[in-house]
Design goal:
With 515 residues, this protein is of the alpha+beta class. The protein is built from 18 helices and 28 strands. Helix 10 crosses helix 11 and helix 10 runs antiparallel to helix 16. It catalyses: 5-phospho-beta-D-ribosylamine + L-glutamate + diphosphate = 5-phospho-alpha-D-ribose 1-diphosphate + L-glutamine + H2O.
Length: 515
């Protein structure tokens, strides 16, 4: 048997050292006559950076809805046979990193549920902040008996959204969505579908990106514009904050469930999004290059070469070199084929200095005064190991430049940072952080410099991880946390009478049809 994905990545410079992770990537396509499952597959492939723990695709042929999902990377979960079995004219896809609920098969998406007129499959990017309130709402409306995803052991806020959307026997899914969506708080980009219609919705703040694209014979929605490019769709526009889009045989229609109150995540520009994506009409690559230029203006230094920490530090390093006039060089080489290893190095092997991800080019490094550009520092362990590696390779000086301000606060909107106690910038000045890392100097870009590089008004960005100012009100700390639904005895429920029968489950595949 082939090894089953365990949902654990071990491809960093330090095994077990995890950088900031985004919640998920979502993709949806309505395109009669096209191979929608394969379009969804390639769309998810383009969004793999947004989540590497599990992946899933749902399709519908107008009568029956099929879902296939499993733990692992997109390329590990799907093969030609699985995709050929997922027939239909519309599809949604999801690639997950867990920010609510554990990394288990039960929590993989798309989620499933029975509605008054059919079946719903749903994928979610983001993180809700009023989970406890929604648990109470589900229990109040549908009683204490667990049904659907909740009965199958799903412990995510996505399962709660699905329960609420499937619980109204007197209204269409579209009408139910327009009633439920205003009740959600936090970050949510949703793609969902029933047998005939594709839906997309985005929270009123537009924390996470979501875009709409056009195919010759259909429509596409995706977390990032780069996914549109991959499947040959032309960019149309963003899904607006507070907007619900519905796409079916009658075309595309739009409804507004909340007024726009923009607070887009600035960290998407710094690190999370692909560089070939545009957010709010600003090229992410251009924003990162400008962050590097601003870094050079704010923290100049006499040095011989500028090197990036690949790949996330490369655009900012290009900008730093261009602005400073210091030569750009590739001082670190990255293993392009590292994705996942199922072998955990022992302590003895770790002491040998196993380098799965990066290795220095000694002939470039030796004797040089180096500026190393990276996008962010979280715990600092990776940068500390990297600086040690560069010194061992013969670097004369190592000056670290970071294209974001110090990360000091946790994110509750879909990025899994370390806890505040683990964040190296908590309680330390930049000089003290630099000394802790072993750098000759350390410079973080200013908040104003970073924001200016995005070309977005500061008032329309979320900078909470840098400032501690949260644009969406947070509940008490007891009502927050990744494993909230697993650790509590909160009442969970869903409608007692399911309208669909489970007719087949093979591996990660689930088929639902009307009885």
């Amino acid at each position: 048997m082939a090894p089953r994905g365990d949902g654990l990545l071990s491809h960093e410079l330090l095994p077990g050292e995890k950088g900031p992770q985004d919640a998920c990537g979502v993709f949806g396509v309505w395109a009669p006559g096209e191979e929608v499952s394969k379009l969804a597959y390639f769309g998810l492939y383009a969004l793999q950076h947004r989540g590497q723990e599990s992946a899933g695709i749902a399709t519908s042929n107008g009568e029956q809805l099929l879902v296939y999902k499993d733990m692992g990377l997109v390329s590990q979960v799907f093969n030609e046979t699985a995709l050929n079995a997922l027939t239909g004219h519309l599809a949604i896809g999801h690639t997950r990193y867990s920010t609510t609920g554990a990394s288990t098969w039960e929590n993989a998406q798309p989620t499933l549920g029975a509605t008054a007129g059919g079946t719903i499959a749903l994928g979610h990017n983001g993180n809700l902040t009023n989970t406890v309130e929604l648990v109470d709402l589900v229990a109040e409306r549908y009683g204490s008996q667990r049904r659907g995803e909740l009965a199958r052991g799903n412990t995510t806020d996505t399962a709660l959204i699905t329960a609420l959307l499937t619980g109204d026997p007197d209204h269409t899914l579209e009408a139910t969505a327009l009633e439920v969506l205003p009740r959600l708080r936090g970050a949510f980009c949703l793609v969902f579908m029933d047998e005939r219609t594709l839906y997309a919705a985005r929270d009123p703040q537009g924390v996470r990106p979501l875009v709409l694209g056009r195919l010759e014979r259909g429509w596409v929605v995706a977390s990032e514009s780069a996914a549109l490019d991959i499947v040959g769709a032309s960019y149309v526009r963003e899904v607006e904050p507070g907007e619900l889009i519905c796409i079916d045989a009658d075309g595309l229609r739009s409804s507004r469930f909340a007024p726009v109150d923009r607070a887009g995540c600035v960290f998407e520009y710094v690190y999370l999004a692909r560089p070939d994506t545009s957010i709010a009409r600003r090229s992410v690559h251009s924003a990162r290059v400008e962050m590097g230029r601003q870094l050079a203006r704010e923290f100049p230094v006499d040095a011989d070469i500028v090197i990036p920490v690949p790949e996330s530090g490369t655009p900012a390093a290009v900008g730093y070199a261009a602005e400073s006039g210091i030569r750009f060089a590739q001082g670190l080489t990255k293993n392009a084929y590292v994705g996942r290893t199922f072998i955990e190095p022992s302590q003895t092997l770790r002491q040998l200095g196993i380098r799965l991800k990066l290795n220095p080019l000694r002939e470039v490094i030796r004797g040089q005064r180096i500026v190393v550009v990276d996008d962010s520092i979280v715990r600092g362990n990776t940068q500390r190991a990297l600086i040690r590696m560069l010194r061992e390779a013969g670097a004369a000086e190592v000056h670290v430049r970071i294209s974001s301000p110090p990360v000091k606060w946790p994110c509750f909107y879909g990025i899994d940072f370390a806890s505040r106690a683990e964040l190296i910038a908590t309680g330390l000045t930049p000089a003290e952080v630099g000394a802790s890392l072993g750098a000759d100097s350390l410079g973080y870009i200013s908040l104003e410099g970073m924001v200016a590089a995005t070309e977005q008004p500061k008032s329309q960005l979320c900078t909470a991880c840098f400032t501690g100012s949260y644009p969406i009100e947070l509940p008490p700390s007891a009502a927050l946390g990744k494993h909230l639904l697993e650790q509590s005895e909160l009442p969970l429920g869903a409608p007692e009478d399911g309208l669909h029968t489970l007719v087949g489950t093979t591996g990660g595949a689930t088929a639902l049809e009307q009885p």
